[in-house]
Amino acid sequence: MRKRSVTLDGHSTSVSLEDPFWSELVKLAEARGQSLNALIAGIDRTREPATNLSSALRLFVLAELRRKISPV
What we know:
The chain is of the alpha+beta class.
């Protein structure tokens, strides 16, 4: 687990994520033609209020990987 700094809407914050989740976030941002900060900001805006940002990022990565494995 590593703590990383990101900028969301002009404000710095930190998230704690395992390297495999971080690597997938980087790949997803590249595939979407977005900066990593833009992708994370979008996830932050749509997460449930009771879910912390680190958990929301993990859940996003999991959902994207599941979608790739079995697209509907």
